[in-house]
Amino acid sequence: MKNDRIYKMIFASVYPHYVAKAEKKGRTKEELDTIIYWLTAYDQKTLQKQIDKKVTFETFFDEAPQLNPNVSKITGVICGYRVEEIEDPLMKKIRYLDKLVDELAKGKAIEKILRK
Q1: Is this structure's pTM higher than 0.90?
Q2: For the chain, how many structural domains are there in total?
Q3: SS percent in the chain: helix, strand, coil, step 5
């Protein structure tokens, strides 16, 4: 299954790609981390712990303290799918993160990314 492969990917192996994507577009690692904190309720210490433990995306989201209650405001297309139409709960969370990283890389203001 394609989804199973994504779920088993190590978050720490993808995180540097998120950082590179943001930095290539003039954004910072700190801004990326702010987005991740907003989405998952991780903080600097707990995010770093997940990276150090080399957890899968599945574990990363399973152990997230709380998904932000405003995630339903994240809409649009990512990887050819409308985020709001994805039925699989874990895939939806992964695509929420992808969508937020894309918005950061496209220069969207942090306040708008965080749905404030």
Answers
A1: yes
A2: 1
A3: 65, 5, 30
